[in-house]
């Protein structure tokens, strides 16, 4: 009989039952999450951010450049990103003379927009020696859920019966492309390329059949 498996997400460890998937981030922020300052972010099918029980649209994030700052921090999975790197993302090789001050203003806007609970003192975005980092322990990111599902499904210790529903859920997340609205953002290509090679469900079906035959 298939057993449940655990999958680590940005907000902790979750149990995945066979035939069940992890809910999409836009529907996952609970009252407890709001109190702890957690947010939910979906990148597949377009950017969707939910904080404090409300959906924050791209315009509410402050426009294209603040949105790109947020995306760059998320795609670095919480690792510090230098101001120079973010300036390069925003303006390429020809930044304005006020680029650093403008970037700091964008980060200030994001901190306010992504601060869902007044009881939470620490900002989601921290400053670390000329770098910015986002606290992924308080972010439920669909891209991370996809990666953890695939990793768990392909783990040799996971039985084919348990792996199949996890891989199906991972594939369902990628039915829509990653950030399709960002068509002119070449710096996102590195993040998009791995998602273009989706794991194939038939491989696991074959493994499941072989496992049954041996038993």
Provide a descriptive summary of the structure in words.
Helices cover 42% and strands 16% of the residues. It is of the alpha+beta class and 215 residues long. It has a domain at 5-25 and 141-214. The longest helix has 15 residues, at 99-113. It is globular and about 55 Å long.
Question: Layout of SSEs?
Answer:
Elements: E1 5-9, E2 12-16, H1 31-36, E3 39-42, E4 48-51, E5 54-56, H2 64-75, E6 81-82, H3 83-91, H4 99-113, E7 125-128, E8 131-134, E9 139-141, H5 142-154, H6 160-173, H7 189-196, H8 201-214
Parallel strand pairs: 3-9
Antiparallel strand pairs: 1-2, 3-4, 4-5, 6-8, 7-8
Helix pairs in contact: 2-4, 5-6, 6-8
Keywords:
3-stranded antiparallel sheet, alpha+beta, single chain, about 220 residues, disordered C terminus, about 40% helix, 4-stranded mixed sheet
Helix proportion range: 40-55%
Computed structural class: alpha+beta
Strand content: 15-25%
The beta-strand count equals 9
Q: Mind telling me the C-alpha Rg?
A: 19 Å
Which strand order does the major sheet show? 5-4-3-9
Give the count of helical stretches: 8
Overall mean pLDDT stands at 79
Largest sheet: 4 strands, mixed
Shape: globular
What's the order of the H and E elements? EEHEEEHEHHEEEHHHH
Spatial separation of the terminal alpha carbons: 12 Å
- Give the low-pLDDT segments: 1-6, 8-15, 17-27, 31-35, 205-215
């Amino acid at each position: 009989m298939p057993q449940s498996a655990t999958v680590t997400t940005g907000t902790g460890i979750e149990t995945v039952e066979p035939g069940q998937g992890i809910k999409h981030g836009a529907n996952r922020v609970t009252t407890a999450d709001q109190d702890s300052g957690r947010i939910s972010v979906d990148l597949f099918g377009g950017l969707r951010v939910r904080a404090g029980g409300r959906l924050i649209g791209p315009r509410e994030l402050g426009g294209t450049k603040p949105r790109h700052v947020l995306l760059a921090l998320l795609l670095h999975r919480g690792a510090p990103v230098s101001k120079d790197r973010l300036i390069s993302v925003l303006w390429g090789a020809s930044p304005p003379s006020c680029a650093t001050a403008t970037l700091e203003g964008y980060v200030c806007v994001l901190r306010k927009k992504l601060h869902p609970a007044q009881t939470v003192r620490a900002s989601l975005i921290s400053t670390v020696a000329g770098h910015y980092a986002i606290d992924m322990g308080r972010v439920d990111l669909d891209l991370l859920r996809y990666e953890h599902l695939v990793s768990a499904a392909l783990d040799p210790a996971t039985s084919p019966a348990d792996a199949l529903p996890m891989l199906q859920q991972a594939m369902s997340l990628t039915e829509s492309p990653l950030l399709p609205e960002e068509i002119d953002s070449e710096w996102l290509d590195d993040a998009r390329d791995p998602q273009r090679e989706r794991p194939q469900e038939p491989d696991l079906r074959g493994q499941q059949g072989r496992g049954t035959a041996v038993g």
